[in-house]
Amino acid sequence: RSPIADAWARRHLTVAFAAVFVGALGGLVQAFVRAGWMTLPPWLDYYAVLTVHGVLLALVSTTYFIFAYLLAGNGRTLGDLSPGGRRFVALGFWLMTVGILLAAAMILAGEASVLYTFYLPLQAHPLFYIGLALFVVGTWSVAYALIRQYFDWKKAHPGERTPLFAFMATVTLFIWWIASLGVAATVLFQMIPLSLGWVSGVNVELSRTLFWYFGHPLVYFWLLPAYMVWYVNLPKIIGGRLFSDALARFAFLLFLVFSFPVGVHHQLTEPGIRDVWKFFQVVLTFAVVVPSLMTAFNVFATFELTAREKGHRGLFGWIRALPWQDVRFLAPFLAMLFFIPGGIGGLINASYQMNAMVHNTLFVVGHFHVTVGTPVMLTFFGASFWLIPNLTGRTLPAGARRLGLVQAILWAAGMLLMSIAQHALGLMGAPRRTAFTTYQNHPVAESWFSTPIANYATMAAGGALLFTAAVLMVGLAVYLAFFAPKAAPDRAEPFPLAEAAEEGMQPALLENWRLWLTLAAVLIVIAYTVPLIDIANHGAPLVRGYRTW
Ligand code: HAS
């Protein structure tokens, strides 16, 4: 056990689940408003609710859960935080928390209805941006402590293979560090000066490009910890070993190299970036799909290998051997299934021509609910069933396991309804972001969006199931943290850490950080230098902010 890291992991989890609760409530309200089932009171703006929903679920709950998981896992594999590391984690946690409280207060006050992408020229209150800046700096501090912990261990154990968990945590945190430089640049040098009135206009295309340089690797910062659960924890839960440790490390390194030079695939419809660079980044987007396919192979091979080792035969007979009644397995497995359409949707988005059809429609909203909303969130929910009791020295009672199965199935059912409706509505041209009220009661729009599937009511019904599942999850998290039976020392619910099936040393190449970080830097320079010069030289005239408050 690692008492210091565990205490900080518990604090991070508390914020994560508080954000899940408020964020899910925002989602429910929004789906009901779109379906016309609810009218907001005049003092509550639709876009403020949408911003709360996106910021709390996509940015806050994920980041805090990820840090909790990485702190706990590094503690189990590398040992506890050093006194220095502890100071960086404490500083980071409080900076993040003060920052996010400031930003959330501004959103709730209706002074920052800029959505979770907070693009310019939409302009929020300066305190919103200052809050965001504090949040980002705070994450750097926690990330520094964890990366440092990994390299200290490596130095103290020359020639030894680093633990897979800590290796993966380090890749994930490097991705966060390098990516967040982009968002920090636009917040510090464009958004804060504009909102304080220090400058009269900003280069919006530059801001969007810096944002998406951050925004796409951000999705891998969310995804990779879910992959860690699949690679490191799940094989142990099913009683087996990971098919290939080396392949898993290589997949993570490919994410480190290919996550960044692809952000322009979010800007395919924007002027100001030449086609050749859009094409180049689209090609690299298809490269970043490869490590996900490698993951699907490695994880599925692990399932099959484990079941066959236990004596199950036949082409599909081994599937029956998987622990379907165990929420610690079922929730992440359902999450994986959702990533199949999630990945296919990503490929559609990334295909230059098809993007023109789906961009800025509800299809994209459907896509991110079957990526971050389910593969990531449902995996985190499933992991909570061992992470929370492990961190609080408790057991996981059978009743909680059963309710966990109900939670996972409710979430999956709700997401199925909602995301199918979103994809279908998007293909029929329903816009994203736009409040439904702007075309409500228009007879053509109403008849167009009223088929059984492509229907706002189907979407809202899914949203209601999702909200129920979120409340159940938060209730279970509170129960596991405070009310589940206390265990004798070392008898708490274990933190499952699997071994790998293959033996022997890894190729040294896989831990040559200088090489992989240099490759990442080279690709970033190639993909972004000319587009940024173009944007600076020939970009649109400086634009005044559009104040949302
Ligand atoms: Fe995305 C927009 C392209 C992955 C999140 N994406 C978004 C937005 C979000 C988001 C939040 O190219 C909206 C941003 C906004 O607000 O504007 N995305 C991709 C591509 C991938 C991808 C190519 N996205 C993600 C992940 C996300 C995420 C992961 C969150 C965690 N995305 C785009 C594009 C846009 C976009 C464009 C802009 C659209 C626009 O115009 O605005 C790839 O990484 C996907 C690769 C994944 C796979 C799936 C592999 C499957 C696995 C499951 C294994 C299953 C098993 C079980 C083992 C190819 C690993 C099998 C069991 C059996 C029984 C068979």
From TrEMBL:
GO terms for molecular function: cytochrome-c oxidase activity; heme binding. The chain crosses the membrane at residues 47-72, 93-120, 126-147, 167-192, 212-234, 246-264, 284-306, 327-348, 368-391, 403-425, 456-482, 515-533. It is found in: Membrane. Signal peptide: none annotated. SUPFAM superfamilies: Cytochrome c oxidase subunit I-like. The keyword Repeat does not apply. Keywords: Electron transport, Heme, Iron, Membrane, Metal-binding, Respiratory chain, Transmembrane, Transmembrane helix, Transport. GO terms for biological process: aerobic respiration. One of its GO terms (cellular component) is membrane. Its main location: membrane. Belongs to the heme-copper respiratory oxidase family. This is Cytochrome C.
